[in-house]
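lol forgot to send this yesterday, sorry. struct tokens for the thing we talked abt
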């Protein structure tokens, strides 16, 4: 004859273990995620770098540049820098010798027809919360894993031709953020009561 009390005890134990596993792992999927990405034609750091490598100073024309997606009139997050803004952005602020500049920039300094520039600033960040769901939910401990990439480039144009280019970037951004609030949801209560 089957001992029903033993069977119920084992069933309750198995159910308790399953519930504990769900609470500890299943709830982590309920944590919010966020993504920050500037809208440009390049979906990755490698794509942006490949575009930059195709631009050849002295050969690439303005229409070539626009065909590569560098067009402030059509593509978001590409800036048009006038002559003064371009010089402020590229030249040192202290006194300097014009002879130490790149030939392309030197040509802009002495040109009767001013140069201008197109600037790209692209960042793509993925923010994922991780850790204990209940500590996060009640604001005791919030942990965020941030990953992504950043690419910045500038193209100096004289007349109809790119004469100088420069880039900087971070192909692999990664950081962890952690915020602790010992009082959890009550942490900001004191300051809000004082303001009233």
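and heres what i got for the seq, position by position
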């Amino acid at each position: 004859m089957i001992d029903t009390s033993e069977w119920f005890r084992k069933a309750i134990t198995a159910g308790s273990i399953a519930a504990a596993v769900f609470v500890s792992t299943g709830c982590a999927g309920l944590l919010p995620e966020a993504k920050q990405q500037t809208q440009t034609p390049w979906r990755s750091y490698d794509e942006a770098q490949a575009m930059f490598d195709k631009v050849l100073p002295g050969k690439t024309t303005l229409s070539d540049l626009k065909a590569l997606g560098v067009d402030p009139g059509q593509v978001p997050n590409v800036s048009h820098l006038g002559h003064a803004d371009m010089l402020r952005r590229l030249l040192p602020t202290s006194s300097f010798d014009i002879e130490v500049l790149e030939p392309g920039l030197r040509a802009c300094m002495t040109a009767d027809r001013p140069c201008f520039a197109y600037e790209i600033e692209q960042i793509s960040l993925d923010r994922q919360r991780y850790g204990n769901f209940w500590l996060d939910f009640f604001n005791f401990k919030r942990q965020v894993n941030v990953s992504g990439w950043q690419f910045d480039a500038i193209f100096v144009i004289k007349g109809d031709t790119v004469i100088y280019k420069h880039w900087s970037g971070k192909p692999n951004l990664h950081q962890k953020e952690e915020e602790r609030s010992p009082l959890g949801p009550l942490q900001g209560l004191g300051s809000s009561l004082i303001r009233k």
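The longest strand covers residues 161-180. anyway ping me if u want another try
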